[in-house]
Amino acid sequence: MLSFDSSLSDALDTHSTESFWVLKLYYNDETSFIGVSDQDRIDGSDIYYGLVTSWGNLTHSLDFFNFTTSTMNMSLKLVNVDKVIENGRFSDLFSTYNFANRKWELFQNTGRADTYDTSARMIGSGIISGDISYDTKGISIKLLDYTSKYHKQTPSNVVDSTTYPNAPEVNINKPIPMAYGDFHIRDDLGTIPTTYFDRFKQFYKGAFPAIITDKWDVGEEASKLTVDSQAIHTLDAENFYAFKSDQYSTLTGTIGISSNPTVTFSGKSASVYIPLSSSNQGSPNGYGKYSLSTPANAVDGDFQTKATFEADGSHTVNSTCAIDYAIPKINKLGIYSDANIITKYGTATNLANELDDYFQIANVQIGSITTNSETETSVTGIFTSAQKDSFDFERNVEYKLFSQAESESVEIYETGLQIDFDLEEIEAYTISEQYEEVVTGGFSVQTQFENEEESFSETIIKTRTKTVNTPSKIEYIYYSGKGRKYGSWISDGGRSVGYSTSNFIENPVFIIEDIMRTELSLTDSEIHETSFNNSGNYDSGTPSNDGYVKDIYSEDKMSDIKFAFSQNKFINSKDLINRLCKQILSWVFISGDGKFKIRTLRGTGDYSSADKTIDFNDINLKNISKTPLGGVRNDITINYAKDYGQDQFLSSVNPTADSTSEGNTVAGYKQTLKLKMDADIIDSTTATKLAEAYMEVFKDRKVIISFDCLRAKYNDLEIGDIILFSNWDSSIKIYGDAMGTDYYKIMSISKKPNSSSIKAIKVS
Fold first, then answer.
1. What is the C-alpha to C-alpha distance for residues 228 and 159, in angstroms, rounded to an integer?
2. What per-residue confidence (pLDDT) applies to 113?
3. Residue 671: what are its φ and ψ, rounded to 5°?
4. Which residues contact 577 (CB under 8 A, 6 or more apart)?
């Protein structure tokens, strides 16, 4: 809601108060303006010429189900007869004054003697459209908000040939990616051993693209890649990968990361970890007394689960416990150099590598195994030269525990094949498309405003944008780490939202704010920090004080809502922000005061106060309706965990379909109405909560109330504001129910100097 000063608010609350608008139309370098109003008005040294013959409606709306907003706009007509201003027509000013694409400012005022153009009275601002037309009697001007000024193509930094003269030709003019969130070490696998395993992509949350900005060759000459245009939080020299044939191979040459976000690397050596298969394993076998417990646990990629081999030689001459694991088929990745089985052990008993007790892998006897150790076992000898050249490693590998005279046992938490090779080249990655745009569709319905339509999606809603234009090749290296860090803006001026400068950003609300600051170069004066604080705040001590996004996600605390993604394709910043808004059920828009604001939908039981209470005696009720049946969705699928090498989502969640909205009673027909979304999320918990949030919002139709406000006292309201009603006529029921303490969110508002029209949707 806008913050009118008390003098204006008090004046508007009086029925007999005259209310009017004054408008500033700036020109040239925007240090000067022409002021206009409905009649000549003087405010100190400012003159407002009475040239306005028709104030159009100042309109703004949000799409409740698509989580997008319109551009605030207004049209007006001015007198354009001869000698009306500066001894000529208003249109004659165009030869000396450049109005198009210059700013405008609109102020709400009353007949009381107060300064007209204070910030507390501004209800609209933006850019004067170039869509200006006139004749000898009048001139029409269209006013828009700052959307066209603020928004632009992102990522805003590209691999240009001046800055990066040695970049691969296919990478010139391609975007430098933007990385957010935690795509570093997986925290659901237990403790990842650091001797051999921690360098491989399988044990990390994700692999994000870094674009090569200095040509790579297979010799020792150093090359460069850029992970982001901003320094990011975490980079590990052991976790840079080349992608080929669906495999992320770890670069094992020399990696230098001292100049984050630029990384240098040299050499051609690489390693890939090939998980073994238990589904194609041979049956457990042996002789004497032996046992093999949960053999699949040794090859499941989890360091919390284990397989246990046991052999008791005290009952026979000797005992063995053996099983075969399968090496799957892989494609050729480079020039073969070595092959090893790496293994993480748990508890080992009596395995001193003696003649009568030992463990062997692929007929290679392992040395003394100690509890919680790791081993690297060379198996290059089990492959022929031809198999090495062609990467034909598909076969079974036997694991065997041998015991004689005493009991032996060993636990294996993880084991797999490590292939070392030399890269022949960095393959150019073919992205399906190069530019993303918003998916549009649906149908139009008439609103209560004359000559105005709004679009609602009837059948499908998508978060991620589609891509257009022609296929493009880009050379990437991939890496695991943590993305962009908070700047000082997160705590400047005493701001306290639970995060500090240099923390990595995974809170989606502040990802949006960082995009505004780093990509659009916006400052505090252009961002309404309070609204962002309200939506994204994290209070570690008192989770109930967390931001509104937590409410709709039904989480215990804001820190559980984790976003992680790379923006490596061009996209308009408005589309990118809208995509994120859809995933946190929020709307970002440019307010009448020219600042970006965010409004977040809360759970139906989370509203306890309103921005303003509407007196029923001040309005003319137009109609009560419900959102279209076509907007109901009761079967939600969220796709998440995008693999940037394969350019596809690897996982999805689909909570149980809701039954209350299916119409499965005597009153209707049972229907399953599906909605699918792609999300900038890599963990299943956040994805599941998002699906549940969408289910809660989409499973039912919503009540909408449309009404006219007969005075300008409600012109400080904006889209996204929460309202209550007082003095409601008890004879007017809301689909059979009395109007109680029900909270409504403003979907659209159309303002005039002395009135407004509002459409609001029930959210409590």
1. 11
2. 75
3. -135, 140
4. 512, 515, 516, 588
Count Cα neighbours of 262 within 13 Å in the Cβ-side half-sphere: 10
Distance from C-alpha of 738 to C-alpha of 717, rounded to nearest angstrom: 25
What pLDDT is recorded for position 159? Answer: 95
C-alpha to C-alpha distance for 745 and 612, rounded to whole angstroms: 11
| CA–CA distance, 330 with 395 (Å, rounded to integer) | 11
- How long, in residues, is the chain? 764
Q: What is the pLDDT of residues 540-562, one digit of tens each?
A: 889 889 999 999 988 778 999 99
Domain extent listing, the chain: 6-150, 157-274+426-431, 276-418, 633-698
Pairing mode, if any, of strands 435-437 and 570-572? Answer: parallel
Using CA atoms, how far residue 43 sits from 1, 118, 369, 592, in Å, is 26, 11, 89, 22
pLDDT for 284: 62
- 642 neighbors 651 (Cβ within 8 angstroms): no
Exposure string over 411-430, b if 16+ CB within 10 A, otherwise e: bbbbbbbbbbbebeebebbe
Residue 113, class by beta-carbon neighbours within 10 Å (0-12 exposed, 13-18 middle, 19+ buried)? exposed
Task: Quote the tokens at residue 485.
Answer: 């860090």
CB atoms within 10 A of CB 288: 18
Q: What is the pLDDT of residue 367?
A: 76
For residue 22 the two structure tokens come to: 């004054």
> What span, in angstroms and rounded, lies between the C-alpha atoms of 123 and 593?
6
Type of residue numbered 474: I
Q: Percentages helix, strand, coil for the chain, rounded to the nearest 5?
A: 15, 40, 45
Per residue, the 3-state secondary structure of 296-346, as one string, reads: HHHHCCCCCCCEEEEEECCCCCCEEEEEEEEECCCCCCCEEEEEEEEEEEE
Per-residue confidence (pLDDT) for residue 21, from 0 to 100: 97
Both tokens assigned to 539: 């209070």
So what's the pLDDT on residue 447?
32
Rounded CA-CA distance 156/27 in Å is: 28
Compute the distance between CA of residue 2 and CA of residue 121 in angstroms, rounded to an integer.
Answer: 8
Matching residue, tokens 């237990």: 190
Pairing mode, strands 285-287 and 223-226: unpaired
CATH of 276-418, one of 3.40.50, 3.10.50, 2.60.120, 3.30.2000: 2.60.120
Low-confidence ranges of the chain (pLDDT < 50): 315, 433-434, 440-461, 468-471, 664
Predicted pLDDT at 513: 98
Cα–Cα distance for residue pair 148/533, rounded to 1 Å: 25
- What pLDDT score does 522 carry? 97
- Which residues make Cβ contacts (< 8 Å) with residue 244, sequence separation at least 6? 331, 333, 427
CA-nearest of 684, 643, 678, 504 to 209 is 643
The amino acid at 751: K
What does the DSSP assignment read for 675-732? EEEE-S--SHHHHHHHHHHHHHHHSS--EEEEEEESSGGGTT--TT-EEEEES--TTS
From CA 466, how far away is CA 438, in angstroms rounded? 6
